[in-house]
Amino acid sequence: MSKRPSGVFLPLIGLKRASSLPLYKQLYESIRQSILRGTLRKGLRLPSTRTLAHELGISRNIVVIAFEQLLAEGYVESRTGAGTFVTKTLPEDVLQVECHPLNENRRLSERGETFRRLPQLALPTRDPKLRYAPFRYGLPALDELPLDLWGRLLARHCRKAPAEIAVHGEAAGLLRLREAIATYVGVVRGVRCHAGQIIVVNGSQQAIDLAARVLADPGDVAIIEDPGYIGARSALQAAGMKLIPISVEKEGLRVELLSQRYLSAKLVYVTPSHQFPLGVVLSLTNRLQLLDWVAQNDAWIIEDDFDSEYRYESKPIPALQGLDRNGRVIYIGTFSKVLFPSLRFGYLIIPEDLVETFLAARWVSDRCSPLIEQAALADFIAEGYLASHVRRMRTLYMERRAVMIETIRERLGDLVETWDAEAGMHTVAWLPPGVDDSLISAAAAKGGLFVLPASEFALRPMARGGLLLGYAAFAPAVIRKGIRDLELIIRKYARRPQPVRLGREERLRRCG
Fold first, then answer.
1. What is the DSSP letter of 425?
2. pLDDT at residue number 1
3. Which CATH number does the domain housing residue 493 bear?
4. N or C, where is the chain less crowded by C-beta within 10 Å?
C-alpha cells in the first residue's frame, strides 16, 4: 500500500519582521483568525512545524511556540504519528466572527440584474431531499447507467494518454468524437452534416447561450414556445433579447401565428421532437411552414432536439435541420439525458459559413471541453455502446411510462387528464380547471415528491394547470406509491376554492 501523501496546503500567512509583535505571536494570531473565519476548517491537517518554518523562512522554534499556544487554547489538537489538526470541538460561540451587513442596493450590470431576476425553476434545486425524489423530470434510470463501462473507457485513455492531452484541444472538439456524432445524427435524426460543422460544448445550455450571443444583439427579438424551457428563456434574456411567447398546442408551436401577427424576430427557439414541457411533437406541416418563415424573414432557428432518442409508438419525424435548404437552423443535441446529467457534453451543428465565427466565440467563452472524456465518448459511440444503451433504455422507459399512465388513469382518471407521452422521459397530468398547480407542487414537495407545475414554464396564464411527472428514473413500485401519495394531495386541493390566477403582467414579472 502506498504511503499517504504528505503535502498539505499552507494558509496565507504574512509576517512583519519590523513589527513590535513577536513573530510567534503573529503566526499564532494568523492561524487563529483563519480558524475563526473557517478558512482552516474543522479537522483539517496543518503543515508540520518543519515545513511551515521552511516556507515562512523562520526558525522552527517560533512555529513550535505558536503551535503550543494554539494547542493550549484548544484551537488545534495533536495526533501521534499523524500530525496537528484543527480541533473539531471548538465551542460554537468561539466561532462567531463579526460580519458587516452587505448593501442590498449594490448596482449590477443589466446582464447581472437579469441573472438576479431569473425564476427559481431556471436554477438547480438546493433541497437535497428533492434531488432524486419522485417524480423529478429529466432524471435517467441511475441504477441502469453503464458507469463500469464508462470507467473502463476513461481508464483506457488515461493509461495511454499522450502528453498533448494535457494542453488545450481544438475549440471544435476532438475530431474522432465529431466524426462519431456526425454519423450518429445522420442515421438516427436525418441531420445533414459533416464533422467540420460540429462544435462540442459543455451541454445544451452552453450551446443555447453561444448561439444567442453570436446570432443576436441586445434588444433583438426571440420567439419562444409558451410554455417552454426556462433554461433557454433565461439564456436568451441574459443575452439581452426581448421575448415573444407563442402558444403550443397538440401539433406543437402555432407557427401560423407568426405570419398572422406580422412578427419580426432574429431567433426562433423550438423543441420540435419532444416539446418541453408538454411533450407534443411539431408536425411536419408546421416544420415546413416554420422553415419558410425564417427564410423569408432573415431569421434563425435554434433547434433543441430534446429527448429525440426516446420515442415509443411511432417513428420520429426528421430533424428540422435535415429539412432545411437555406442554412437557417442551428441544431443542438446533448448526451446529458441519454447517458447521465453530470456528463456535460452537448454539440452544435452549424451552417458551414458560420463555423469559424462560432469557433472564435467558443474559444473566447471557455476554450474547449475535457479531452479524455471526449475520447471516451467517441469510443462509446463508435463501438456501438450508445446504440445498445439507447435501445435498452427505450424498452425500460416505455415500461415505466405505461405504469405511470395506467396508474394515473386508475387512481385519478375522474380528475386528471394525461396526453399520451409518445416520447421523452416525463408526462404531464392536466388538472381540473381552477385547480392551482403551483399549490399542489408546493404541497407535494413537503411530502417528498418533485412535481413541477406546468404554469411556471409559461409567460402567459394557462387555461388549466398541469404537473410534470418524470418516470424514467423510477421503478414501477415507486411510481405507483408516488401517484397514491399525489392523489391525496390533488383530491384535497380539488375540493378547495382556488385563488385567482395571476394576470399576464404579474406572470411576466415573476418570470423575469
1. S
2. 44
3. 3.90.1150.10
4. N
Strands 329-334 and 83-86: unpaired
How big is the chain by its Cα radius of gyration, in Å?
A: 28
Distance from CA of residue 274 to its chain's centroid?
A: 18
Looking at the structure of the chain, the number of domains it has is 3
State pLDDT tens for residues 62-72: 999 999 999 98
**Residue 313 near residue 285 (C-beta atoms within 8 A):** no
76 with 124, same domain? no
Residues 349 and 469 in one domain: no
Is residue 102, in this structure, part of any structural domain at all?
no
Q: Give me the domain span that covers residue 443.
A: 113-139+390-510
List of residues 6+ apart from 27 with CB closer than 8 A: 13, 15, 56, 58, 62, 63, 66
pLDDT of amino acid 253: 93
Rounded Cα distance, 32 and 247, in Å: 60
- pLDDT, residue 505, reads 46
Alpha helices per DSSP H over 73-174: 110-116, 147-159
Residues of the chain with pLDDT below 50 are 1-3, 93, 97, 122, 499-512
Q: What angle do CA 349, 301, 195 make, to 5 degrees?
A: 10
pLDDT digits (tens, 9 = 90+) for 121-159: 545 566 677 777 888 888 888 888 888 998 999 898 888
CA 511/CA 114 separation, integer angstroms: 11
Q: Is residue 371 a part of any domain in this protein?
A: yes
Reading the block at residue 435, the C-alpha cell is 385547480
Does 302 lie in the same domain as 443?
Answer: no
Locus of grid cell 459533416: 194
| Boundary (domain end) residue, out of 339, 368, 383 | 383
